Each structure stands twice: as C-alpha cells, then as structure tokens.
Amino acid sequence: MTSSERLSVVASRELAGRRTVFAGIGLPTLAASLAHLTVAPRLEIVYESGVCGAHPSHLPETIADAVLITGAEAVLSMPALFGYVLQGGHIDVGFLGAAQIDKWGNLNTSVIGDWDAPKVRLPGSGGAVEVMANSREVFVVMRRHDPRSFTEKLDFCTTPGPDRALEEGVRPLGTGVTRVITELGILAREGVGEELKLVAVHPGVTVDQVRENTGWDLAVADTVETVQPPSAEELRLLREDVDPDRVYLR
C-alpha cells in the first residue's frame, strides 16, 4: 500500500453523508471517486471547470479534460458556478490541497520562500479562495507532514480561512477547514475560533511523532483514535475501478 492509496481511502471515508463536493484534481479526485463507490453513493462531484455531477469513464487528467463532460449532469459557465453554486451555499465540502497550512487552516499554494525571490513558485489560488469562503466546510489532503508544510507562519497566505478573513472584516459563508488528512494522521476542528488538533493517527504512528513533525505546538484531543487501515475491498476499488492507469496513484 502506498501513501497515496492510504490518503485517498482515509479521505474518502470523511465524505460519508455528504451530498455535494467541490473536488480538486489529484488526491481529492481519487477520494471523491472512491467515496461515490463506497460511503457516499449519492455524492455529486463538482469541478472548477463548471462540470456538475460528473460521471467520467476514467479519471480526468485536468479539470478541463473532455472526459468530464460526457455524461455530466450539467456544465455551467464560470459566473454561474462561482456566483450561484459556490456563493449560493450549495457545496457541502470543498476538497483542497496545499503546500503549507497553519493552525487556523489558512493555506499557501503560491510560493515557498520570499515572495520577491521564492525558492519555489507554485500554481496559485485557482478557485481555492472561493471554495474556502463558500463551502460549508473544507477538507485538505497533505502528502507531506513536516514542520515546513505544517508551519506556524505561512510563507504566503493564498487562501485565508474564516478566522483570518474575520480579522479583515469579511464574514465568509463557511466554517473553513475542518479536516486535514496527512501521512501521519487526521487533524480536525469544529470551525471559527478553534485551531486544528490531532484527533487520529495511522497505525504505528505516535502522538509525539506527529507533534515533532508539526511546526506549532499542536493541540491533541483527549482521545486520539487509530485510523482503520484501508480494507482489501477499498484498495481493490481504488486500484481497479477508480485509477487503474495510475494517473494519480503513486
């Protein structure tokens, strides 16, 4: 089992009971597609390209992949998608990735290092700011869990969560990041005013290990659960039905 497979399976379980998800390309697509086959059969997947209720024959390689169009419930213009669907409060979960995250769920997908002379320049926001502000809640999947990715201070804040937005006098519709799924475990918070805390670890991972790999003094839940490992059936579905061509699985 690879890290990508573990992250995808664990993230898919978090979508149980949800109805609409705004999914980014990559691990969020894997998680949403697997959830549709397991814990959330009525899940409607929405993509930033305007595709709603996608039923692709195979995984898209980009949000503009033509495979998303065939069989979709609808294809909307950008003003309709962002103005009516997102800002209208019709998305249960926004699924995002990031290079950096802080304890309040603010995200960096712009640069690593100084803005004027960055070590790495990243893709930027895309629709992440709108997703953060208007989804009822946001899940984040992080491939890396280390102090550089889970940092006290972001190198750049691309996507502010509601706590930071409120400091600027803006009241977002949603509660911001409520779940972060990583290679070490799961961090969670209920909403505005709470920082992320450790609520679950993968088998073989200790609480101290997670804290050592987090760049702030990580809060820990009174009871830390152990994540149930992916089942043989979940892995089979992921490998054979969701991503047999290994588009995103590594």
First-residue to last-residue Cα separation: 10 Å
What is the makeup of the main sheet? 8 strands, mixed
What sort of overall outline do the alpha carbons produce when their principal axes are compared? globular
Give the averaged pLDDT, no decimals: 92
| SS elements, strand count | 14
Low-pLDDT segments, ≥5 res: none
Strand order of the largest sheet: 2-1-5-10-11-12-13-14
Structural class: alpha/beta
InterPro entries: CoA_trans_fam_I, NagB/RpiA_transferase-like
Protein name: 3-oxoadipate--succinyl-CoA transferase
Family: Belongs to the 3-oxoacid CoA-transferase subunit B family.
GO molecular function: transferase activity
Question: What would you say about this model in short?
Answer:
With 250 residues, the protein is α/β, with parallel strands linked by helices. The chain is 24% helix and 22% strand.
Describe the SSE topology.
Blueprint (H helix, E strand, L loop, with lengths): L2 H11 L6 E4 L3 H11 L6 E3 L4 E2 L21 E2 L2 H9 L6 E5 L2 E2 L5 E2 L2 E3 L4 E4 L6 H7 L2 E5 L20 H6 L9 E5 L3 E4 L8 E5 L5 H6 L6 E8 L5 H11 L8
Parallel strand pairs: 1-2, 1-5, 5-10, 10-11, 13-14
Antiparallel strand pairs: 3-4, 6-7, 8-9, 11-12, 12-13
GO molecular function: transferase activity
Protein name: 3-oxoadipate--succinyl-CoA transferase
Family: Belongs to the 3-oxoacid CoA-transferase subunit B family.
